[in-house]
Amino acid sequence: MLDPVKVGILGLGTVGGGVVNVLQRNAKEIANRAGRGVQVTHASVRDVSKPRSCPTDGIVLSEQPTDIVNRDDIEVVLELIGGTTRAYDLVMKAIANGKHVITANKALIALHGNEIFAEAQKVGVNVAFEAAVAGGIPIIKAIREGLSGNKINWLAGIINGTTNFILTEMREKGRDFNDVLKEAQALGYAEADPTFDIEGIDAAHKLTILSSIAFGVPLNFEATYTEGITKIERLDVEYAEQFGYRIKHLGFARCTDNGVEMRVHPTLIPASRLIANVNGVMNAVLVNGDAVGPTLYYGAGAGSEPTASAVVSDLVEVVRTLTVDPENRVPHLAFQPGSIAQKVRFLPMDEVVTAYYLRLLADDRPGVLAEVARILSETGISIEAVSQKEPPEGVNQTDVVLLTHKVKEKHLNEAIKRIEALQSIKGAVKRIRVESLH
Q1: Residue 218, strand partner residues
Q2: Which of 86, 152, 165, 421 has an alpha carbon within 20 to 30 A of 188's alpha carbon?
Q3: Residue 387, C-beta contacts closer than 8 angstroms, at least 6 positions apart
């Protein structure tokens, strides 16, 4: 067998430590699969004196990550420090030095992947990023390779464990959003500043990547509509259940004749769908191909060893291809570089067609529902179901909840504006999109 491939790791924190542990524990299996051994020889850390979650015998630690990317004897660099500015500089330097790169950094790929892959293509090195989406679920390889015989029609994913945990707790235990968020932070599921998770940015980074490899389009994070879960109330969760739906924070992408639609937002999903029953911090991605139909991928979306599993799978792939001509490797974004569509129309939300859940606070008097129905009818919107609660004694207002059939979002926006202008309607109309995921 050939000499082991020497690897340098940028960042020896939760994921980096997990990678070292998996590589050491499964060294024999990994070598047998890759065709040669893998040896981590160097790692960069913020503080060399800090205790580690993995053994560091035989690993030279440095507080200067440039020491790693500039070493002639290192063939593969693992970027596990996160962020986009310094990580981008280090990755581009590693590529310029002729090193293969593996990253778990979804923001880096979503925002800068186009230029990173172009540079890697010029130099003839590989950039792998399985761990950037859905942790330990091998969804990148599934779409890029396992479903390569399909035209992907659409995909939908629960791709952020924090938001899924919060919505699960709200549904199962009747808790309020802020209460569950505090627990998620205490458990380590959410950061002290949870903005990236609860506002949907993390999921949007991941959906951008999935859309690119599914449809053969450039990475375009700016075209991804992004909406978080901060406005979801316990009432909405309860009403959705009564209609036979679950609220999930869903990333949804579809390739249509009018363009590519990419959106992340709270979504009502029929409770009978498998993906609607993915709970807690788990992730799942549903992919619909023209030949295979719907396929579901489920597993841990984060964590030390689940993420390490994806990083090591990329490492095995890179080691296998070290002797392969760059032109014959699996393309970074699934399609050959010259086949990536450059003139792509990404649909604005105004043109997206879907069904909707509407909740409005209305005066409890005859004729109010008729006024609302008239406005919906005049804007071409038909009602699928309606529920009006009897208000408590002495209360003159009540919640009216409607499910609509599919409609273009700009028409719904027009209808909502007119409904909110009615004297009988108090405050803003709550709107949540609905996907049947047939």
Answers
A1: none
A2: 86
A3: 239, 242, 243, 400, 401, 402
Chain position carrying tokens 């029609």: 153
Length of the chain: 438
Instruction: Report d(CA 122, CA 125) in Å as an integer.
Output: 8
Residue ranges per domain, the chain? 2-136+304-339, 139-300, 354-434
CATH no., domain 354-434:
3.30.70.260
Burial (CB count <10 Å: 0-12, 13-18, 19+), residue 270:
middle
Report the SS3 class of residue 88.
helix
Q: Is residue 69 within 8 Å of residue 93, measured between CB atoms?
A: yes
H or E, element range at 406: none
Residue 409's SS3 state is helix
The widest CA-to-CA distance across the chain, in whole angstroms, is: 83
pLDDT tens readout for residues 385-397:
999 888 877 788 9
DSSP 102-151: EE--HHHHHHHHHHHHHHHHHHT--EE-GGGSSTT--HHHIIIIITTTS-
What integer best gives the mean pLDDT of the chain? Answer: 93
DSSP annotation of 339: G
CA–CA dist 228, 290 (Å, integer): 30
Q: Output Rg (C-alpha) for the chain, integer angstroms.
A: 24
In 3-state terms, the chain is what percent helix, strand and coil (to 5)?
Answer: 40, 25, 35
Candidates 99, 106, 141, 206; catalytic one: 206
Q: Average pLDDT in the 176-193 region?
A: 94
Judge whether 6 counts as a catalytic residue: no
- Please say whether the beta carbons of 218 and 114 come within 8 A: yes
In CATH, which of 1.10.230.10, 3.40.190.10, 3.20.110.10, 3.40.50.720 is domain 2-136+304-339? 3.40.50.720
Q: Is the pTM of this model over 0.90?
A: yes
Dihedral sign, Cα of residue 89, residue 90, residue 95, residue 97 = positive
Say whether domain 139-300 belongs to CATH 3.40.50.1110: no
Which amino acid would we find at residue 80?
Answer: L
